[in-house]
């Protein structure tokens, strides 16, 4: 066990800790403090459960507990699977002081968190994120939900966890592409609001790509600190929280155009951040040299930055019009004034976006 770092998401009576440490999963007394009642449902999937469920279940000895192991994949982030979690809570005879534990990546975290938001109009839940993306982004901030055939994350609730337990050792089993995809979200925090962190990432890029444990722990802690601060200042995304979508409007369009699963989320975001940075330069908002620095960092980490061959600029633009951030039919993008200085730009001309998409 390494020493545990503790951060705080400051939301008044709903404030909660983020505990980060190597092997913390095996230190149940540390994280069991966050569980208030006697009933616990652990939700995981067929990939993560064989690796880490036993340790969590052992840590819950003495409580009335059940486990639900769902199939692995975004296609199972559905109302039907959420219904299975609710049925499992019913079978457990869970009271209002029951707790749901989400053990897995962002898919399990979003789904299990939504089940906790729905059961008896909201019970406790604990996030134990095991993918890098979930550790630096989705487990913090209380966005929970599931997909509909009509679109991603269309059904959901803001429901904050009681605690986030990040065991950085779990990353040792994460597939390489998933790991690098998570690093895109780490770079995002430097890009949108922290030049010093961006400089540090440039300094430690190779160590991060090689999963050096100290570099990874530091990157996770600094990312969570950013996310916690933004969530504390703007829980419901009335303003600043939208900056977390830097690169995402392009990225979501790319994910949809290329078919879900072909490009991982972080890969699409990496390409999207490079496009957003270059569009900012096209519009005279930011120096081109900053876009070049971002592109170099992403490449060193092993992330893609080029649009996939054969991308159709007009089709991508149409997909960007479907983004949830848009208001009154205008594309609302997160651009930047340079590294560490992102801002919301409410009405970017189609011609400028098309030019950028066609320039690659
Ligand atoms: P994921 O949950 O599908 O995990 C990626 C893959 O890694 C899966 O196959 C998973 O089983 C596997 N995995 C996870 N941890 C592992 C480990 N330690 N060892 C081996 N394999 C492991 O995807 P993700 O990238 O973690 O999350 C994406 C989801 O998160 C999307 O549904 C997205 O909408 C959501 N999301 C939510 C928020 C939010 O704020 N709530 C933010 C960003 C993304
Ligand atoms: N990942 C975006 C958000 O939490 O707001």
Name the strands of the widest sheet in spatial order.
1-2-9-6-5-3-4
Task: Please tell me the overall pLDDT.
Answer: 96
What is the CATH fold-level name of the largest domain?
Dehydroquinate synthase-like, alpha domain
Count of separate DSSP helical elements = 13
- Order of SSEs, N→C? EEHEHEHEHEHEEEHHHHHHHEEH
Shape: globular
Bound molecules: nicotinamide-adenine-dinucleotide, glycine
Count of individual beta strands: 11
**What is the CATH-assigned architecture of the largest domain?**
Up-down Bundle
The share of residues in extended strands comes to 15-25%
The CATH class of the largest domain: Mainly Alpha
Q: What is the rounded Rg?
A: 20 Å
- Rounded to the nearest angstrom, the distance between the terminal CA atoms is 46 Å
- The H-level CATH homologous superfamily of the largest domain, spelled out, is Dehydroquinate synthase-like - alpha domain
SSE order and pairing:
Layout: E1 5-9, E2 16-21, H1 28-32, E3 39-45, H2 49-59, E4 64-70, H3 79-91, E5 99-104, H4 106-118, E6 124-129, H5 132-138, E7 143-148, E8 151-158, E9 163-167, H6 176-193, H7 195-209, H8 213-233, H9 248-258, H10 265-282, H11 288-301, H12 313-320, E10 333-336, E11 342-345, H13 350-359
Parallel strand pairs: 2-9, 3-4, 3-5, 5-6, 6-9
Antiparallel strand pairs: 1-2, 7-8, 10-11
Helix pairs in contact: 3-4, 5-6, 5-8, 6-7, 6-8, 6-10, 6-11, 7-8, 9-10, 9-12, 10-11, 10-13, 12-13
Bound molecules: nicotinamide-adenine-dinucleotide and glycine (GLY).
């Amino acid at each position: 066990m390494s020493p545990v770092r503790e951060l705080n998401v400051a939301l008044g009576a709903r404030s909660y800790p983020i505990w980060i440490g190597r092997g913390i999963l095996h230190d149940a007394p540390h994280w069991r403090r966050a569980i208030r009642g006697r009933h616990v449902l652990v939700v995981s999937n067929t990939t993560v459960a064989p690796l880490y469920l036993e340790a969590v279940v052992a840590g819950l000895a003495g409580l009335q507990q059940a486990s639900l192991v769902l199939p692995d994949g975004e296609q199972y982030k559905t109302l039907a699977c959420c219904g299975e979690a609710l049925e499992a809570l019913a079978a457990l005879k869970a009271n209002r002081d029951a707790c749901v534990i989400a053990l897995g990546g962002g898919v399990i975290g979003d789904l299990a968190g939504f089940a906790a938001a729905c059961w008896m109009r909201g019970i406790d839940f604990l996030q134990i994120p095991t993918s890098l993306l979930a550790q630096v982004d989705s487990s913090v901030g209380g966005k929970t939900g599931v997909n509909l055939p009509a679109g991603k994350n269309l059904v959901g609730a803001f429901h904050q966890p009681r605690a986030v337990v990040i065991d950085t050792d779990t990353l040792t089993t994460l597939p390489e592409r998933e790991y690098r995809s998570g690093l895109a979200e780490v770079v995002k925090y430097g890009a949108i609001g922290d030049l010093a962190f961006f400089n540090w990432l440039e300094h430690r890029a190779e160590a991060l790509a090689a999963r050096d444990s100290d570099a990874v722990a530091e990157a996770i802690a600094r990312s969570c600190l950013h996310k916690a601060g933004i969530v504390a200042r703007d829980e419901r995304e009335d303003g600043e929280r939208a900056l977390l979508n830097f690169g995402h409007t392009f990225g979501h369009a790319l994910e949809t155009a290329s078919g879900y699963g072909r490009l991982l989320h972080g890969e699409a975001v990496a390409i999207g951040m490079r496009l957003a940075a270059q569009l900012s330069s096209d519009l005279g908002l930011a120096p081109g040299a900053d876009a070049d620095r971002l592109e170099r960092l992403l490449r060193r980490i092993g992330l893609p930055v080029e649009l996939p061959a054969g991308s159709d600029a007009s089709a991508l633009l149409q997909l960007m019009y479907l983004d949830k951030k848009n208001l009154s039919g205008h594309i609302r993008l997160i651009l930047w004034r340079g590294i560490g200085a992102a801002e919301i730009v409410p009405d970017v001309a189609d011609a400028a976006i098309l030019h950028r998409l066609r320039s690659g």
